[in-house]
Amino acid sequence: VGDRVIDVGSEWRTFSNEKGGEDKSRVGGAENTLLGSSDLSTIIGPGRGGASFSSDGNAMYNNRRTVSSSDRTLINAFRTISNMADRINLPKTIIDRANNLFKMVSDGKNLKGRANDAIAAACLYIACRQE
Questions:
Q1: What parts of the chain have a pLDDT lower than 70?
Q2: Residues whose CB is less than 8 angstroms from the CB of residue 80 and which lie 6 or more positions away in sequence, other chains included
Q3: Strand pairing partners for 13?
Q4: What pLDDT digit, counting tens, does each position of 14-42 carry?
Q5: How far apart are CA 65 and CA 43, in angstroms?
Q6: Distance between start and end Cα atoms, the chain
Q7: How many Å is the Cα radius of gyration of the chain?
Q8: What is the pLDDT of residue 63?
Q9: Rounded distance, CA 72 to CA 78, Å?
Q10: CA within 20 to 30 Å of 109's CA: 2, 13, 74, 128, which one?
Q11: From CA 61, how far away is CA 54, in angstroms rounded?
Q12: 8 A C-beta contact, residue 12 and residue 23
């Protein structure tokens, strides 16, 4: 038991090319607080061989991430807002404000049935006007 050493420190890793560089980046993706079901889960792939299939030959494990439709809508809208803002070199603060505006509109369900691209463009315009 004493011959194994377990590092209980933080999971930091340096990605700099220089020796002794202080470029420490946290491992893993950032959590988006605007999404409703932002749980940090791990998906493990199916096993190999006969154990991963049922008696009729169907796979017992479906390796597909289940994301709710409202979260999928938000993710696509945030990507659209980010793409539009990148084209005209807007700062991150405006992108964040536009994302918050889209989240408020989405939660309010006032514009349900409208084109999400148009709503995203309007949110980006309003965020620019507020800045």
A1: 1-31, 36-67
A2: 116, 117, 120
A3: 25
A4: 656 656 555 555 555 566 777 766 555 55
A5: 8
A6: 59
A7: 22
A8: 44
A9: 10
A10: 128
A11: 10
A12: no
pLDDT at 19: 60
Which three-class secondary structure state does DSSP give residue 16? coil
How many angstroms separate the CA atoms of 120 and 98, rounded? 8
Helix axes 92-108, 116-130, angle to 10 degrees: 130
Contact 88, 121 (CB under 8 A): no
Amino acid in position 99: N
Task: Find out whether 120 and 85 touch, Cβ atoms under 8 Å.
Answer: no
Q: Residues 60, 52: contact at Cβ < 8 Å?
A: yes
